[in-house]
Design brief:
By secondary structure, the protein is of the alpha/beta class. The protein is built from 13 helices and 19 strands. 43% of the residues are buried. Bound molecules: zinc ion. GO terms for molecular function: 5'-3' DNA exonuclease activity; damaged DNA binding.
Amino acid sequence: MGVEIVADDGADHDNSCFDDEWRPALDNELIDEGRESYEIREEDEDGEEEDSFSADFYRCGTDWSCLLPAHEEGKKKLKQANLLSMWGLKEPKPQVLSPPPPKRLKTLSVINPRESVSPNFGKSKNNSTVTPPSSNRPRICPFYKRIPGTPFAVDAFRYGSIQGCSAYFLTHFHFDHYGGLTKGWSHGLIYCTRLTARLLTLCLSVNSSYVHPLDLNTEYVIGGVSVTLLEALHCPGAALIHFRLPTGLCYLHTGDFRASKCMQSYALLLKQKVNVLYLDTTYCNPKYNFPSKEDVLDYVVRVTKDFLKRQPKTLVVVGAYSIGKECVYLAISKALGVKIYASASRRRVLHSFGWSDFSSSLCTQAKDTLLHVLPISSLRFETLKDYLKNFVNQYAAVLAFRPTGWTYSESVGKQLDQIRPISKGNVTIYGVPYSEHSSFSELKEFVKFLKPDKIIPTVNVGNPATRDKMQSYFQEWLKG
Ligand SMILES: [Zn+2]
């Protein structure tokens, strides 16, 4: 799959919610499925590179929709200021004071809270100095993680303090988005949903004075910019972020999302034209036309029931990331009327969602239910065979589900009954195309609904050929 994993996130792995079960797989588990799509390199870290996405972007002038692979002309490097002036914006100043807000809006300061931090900040429990996020060389924040005309960055924590940035937005709690955030973070306020905020303090011990939770569907004024978070239908706590600048320009950053028809009834999206769309392009390829989440859940339940009829002594396992895919095991739990077993560390995370129905479905003893959640990296024959040995008196077989869009195959398409599991001995593994990212056709429908002036892809941007292809899709979708 051409996966490239950035080795060091700088994260503090000695966190209370990461117990030994997670530790071996930690780096992989905290990355969601979108991560697997990075083809060449994670992102264009270095704005100076001749063949970087930003270089292409700048070379293309205002008609950047014709982005092409690296070419000879335009050797001269352009700077971010050119991009801003291109969009009729002034370069953001390092600190922006909030103008008096309209009365109905909530106004938040973007002032760095250093002064309000407790005296112990920067020290760990044993009073040793907290190490900086990473000892790697500082990276340069790529332009597509900045919101022009604002002091904002989105999902850009691995670059340390970003010049001119005083507010850091986090779309959701997946490692490839929060990477770089540690308990030593002190570069500025972090804005995110309440659920994500809880995870930042619970799992990463980020100092809460830096974490500023926002409610969904509520308009806030931050540094003079109206900001609204909208449900992204990705993992719990994931949000689309809508920015409206004083100039009237609107930007929508999707973070990771699964586009859905219901988003076409979001009042804000109906009311205001989006000028620039930062789009999750994980599956921006027509070969990814996977079925709806609901169809996959029905299928998973059907397979489970059939399997249990044939072999009643079956342990059912669902693979999951740190967060995400909860609906898969919840659907089985409801259909069979059984509880869900998850490790203590995972339970802490799941309880933090504050979903009472969901919390009451969890149980603390593995022997009390046939439905277990394990890290998705555990879905290997040998690992599951070993796991089954713990329950030798209870179960004779394992039925496991690996729910990710990457299991989608064009030959199966939406005909889920065509899926063939892989079996070895008494272990059977089903790869099911349950995706929390948009399929190609869902992306297309969303873009056609939104009709933005420009689209900036945020995933698969490391490869010029892929970028070119995506731009051709965008042009097609925005015609007429
Ligand atoms: Zn994600």
